[in-house]
């Protein structure tokens, strides 16, 4: 049961990373990055949350 939860966290984290990257490449994010020098907050939070979820899922799957 726990393995399924960790696998779901890993998959969900990878999906968030993908969508966060796509958001950072959007036109609105590019315009914001032009003026502020950093991608949009939404893109950053998606990528941070995705990385955390993926790491937790991966560590959970690697444990016995």
List key phrases describing it.
64 residues; mainly alpha
Characterise the protein shown here.
This protein has 64 residues and is mainly alpha-helical. The protein has one domain. Helix content is 86%, strand content 0%. It has 3 helices and no strands. The two termini are 13 Å apart. The relative contact order is 0.26. The mean pLDDT is 91.
Which secondary structure elements does this structure contain, and how are they paired or packed?
Layout (H helix, E strand, L loop, with lengths): L1 H23 L2 H10 L4 H22 L2
First and last CA, distance:
13 Å
**Number of β-strand runs:** 0
- What is the share of helical residues? over 70%
What's the gyration radius in Å?
A: 14 Å
Number of helices: 3
Short note summarizing the structure:
This protein has 64 residues and is mainly alpha-helical. 86% of the residues lie in helices and 0% in strands.
